[in-house]
Amino acid sequence: MSQASKRALPLLDQSLTMAHIKQVQSHLAVSGTLFDPYAAAKVISFCALSHNPHHLRHAYHLFRFMPTRTTYIWNLMIRAFTDSNHSTQALSLYTNMLRSGFSPDNYTFSFALRACAALSSLYFGVMIHTHAIRLGWESYDFVQNGLVHLYVTCESTDSARKLFDMCFCKDVVTWTALVNGYVKCGQIVTARQLFDEMPDKNAVSWSTMVNGYVHLGLFREALEVFADMQAAGVSANRAGIVGALTACGYVGALDQGRWIHAYVKRKGMRLDAVLGTAVVDMYAKCGCVESGRAVFDEMQERDVFAFTSLISGFANNGECAAAVSLFRRMENDGVVPNEVTFVCVLSACSRVGMVDEGLRVFRSMKSRFGVEPGVQHYGCLVDLLGRAGMLEEAKKVVMEMPMEPDSYVLGALLNACRVHGDLDLGKEMVECFTGKRLDHSGVHVLLSNIYASENQWDDVTLLRKGMEEKRVRKVPGCSLIEVNGKVYEFTAGDRSHVLMQEIMLLSFATVKHLKSFWFDGDDK
């Protein structure tokens, strides 16, 4: 290699543009040293690992015409395709590498196994595992972690556990991969046991448990793990924060949610689409929709999920006109709504009686946005028409739906019948759909209320007996309250709380106190 070429190569370690790289490459080509393995590796490394698809194509073009390759150069290209989510090409390169007579090393296996995991290709992954055993690379930490991750991703948790138990040098990545495997397959108890046994935990380990609990609807447990992470002095990553905010929203833990939002600000985290939406959704679900709106306005990136979260918050907190207005802004901004967005905006239209706007939105689903209305959307449409007293139109929607109406669709129509006193239509609908597995307790309760409003107590008694015979039980209501940052849940009929006697005494005292302020209609 000439002295000029040796002086040119260090330039590749600097922050250069592609134009500069091509100049260096041209110099190396003229000097006849471009295909020197060291020089070529320098050029390919810069282009392949720049995360630019045009640069990657340039690197691959150079790679194809190299007369002499090394294992390092093969690894560069396999890694580049894996990092760029071109996993099929990465595995094709791995196969060509073997055919060319090159032996893969621990880095090759690490990249190839990641590609298999991205494709959920257990077959190819097992084949690579066999190669690693044959060549003696299975015990290396990168390879072991890649194998555990592969089996977890392919939902082969038993194989992952056997490999884990055989590992001599388990690091935090190995432990976390297996914990994630148990979380993904719903074995949260086993995951927690393994998590508690971990000698070291990082932010990814903690966020895996937080999001595992959230995924299974165990929101209080998720918040407990998040609090334990803070107590352990581990800084939460974005995934853990999003999971904790989601849990706060579902249980109404406003104080904790505010603390997490303050934590995000204190750490200087950017409110991207995912994190920003999580904060907006938390405030909306906790009833602080104005705080959610303020965060929404701060966001630089607003996608369909951000808009939908705030629209839902407005609709569920009685600001339905604001929900419809935000939907129009969403349309004007060119953000395409999804199925959930339409449920939220149709619900908002229903609650404020915006029949024409609701019908316009429903019709636009398929005609403008290509979204096929589902049973939830038809339920909202029935509720919209029913609340407005358009019972015959609501009945027509139920009878002409392209799919079988569920209990909630029928419940919306029955509720409208109750409000507007149309007992005959309510009975007709129930008889029409009897035997079609519409035995949701809410439907029976609504019909019972219709009979009661008409003083048909014999029919109420018969309906209640029918519910008992069919073992249809009303789902007990529950409420949540946050005290000193801790959320408590109370279910109707449950007396298991340790302070239940004191709570009931206080409730009775509160009711009595309120009644003392009640005056007869004649008193002024």
Layout of strands and helices, then pairs:
Blueprint (H helix, E strand, L loop, with lengths): L2 H6 L9 H13 L6 H12 L4 H12 L6 H13 L3 H13 L6 H14 L2 H14 L5 H13 L3 H10 L5 H13 L3 H10 L5 H13 L3 H13 L6 H14 L2 H13 L6 H13 L3 H10 L5 H13 L3 H13 L6 H14 L2 H13 L7 H13 L3 H10 L6 H14 L2 H10 L8 H13 L3 H13 L8 E6 L2 E6 L8 H16 L9
Antiparallel strand pairs: 1-2
Helix pairs in contact: 2-3, 3-4, 3-5, 4-5, 5-6, 5-7, 6-7, 7-8, 7-9, 8-9, 9-10, 9-11, 10-11, 11-12, 11-13, 12-13, 13-14, 13-15, 14-15, 15-16, 15-17, 17-18, 17-19, 18-19, 19-20, 19-21, 20-21, 21-22, 21-23, 22-23, 23-24, 23-25, 24-25, 25-26, 25-27, 26-27, 27-28
Description of the structure:
The chain is mostly helical and 524 residues long. 69% of the residues lie in helices and 2% in strands. The protein is built from 29 helices and 2 strands. The chain has a two-stranded antiparallel sheet. A hairpin with a 2-residue loop joins strand 1 and strand 2 (486-491). Helix 18 (289-298) packs antiparallel against helix 19, helix 19 packs parallel to helix 21 and helix 21 (339-352) runs antiparallel to helix 22. The termini are far apart.
Supply the key terms.
two-stranded antiparallel sheet; 2% strand; disordered N terminus; 524 residues; disordered C terminus; mainly alpha
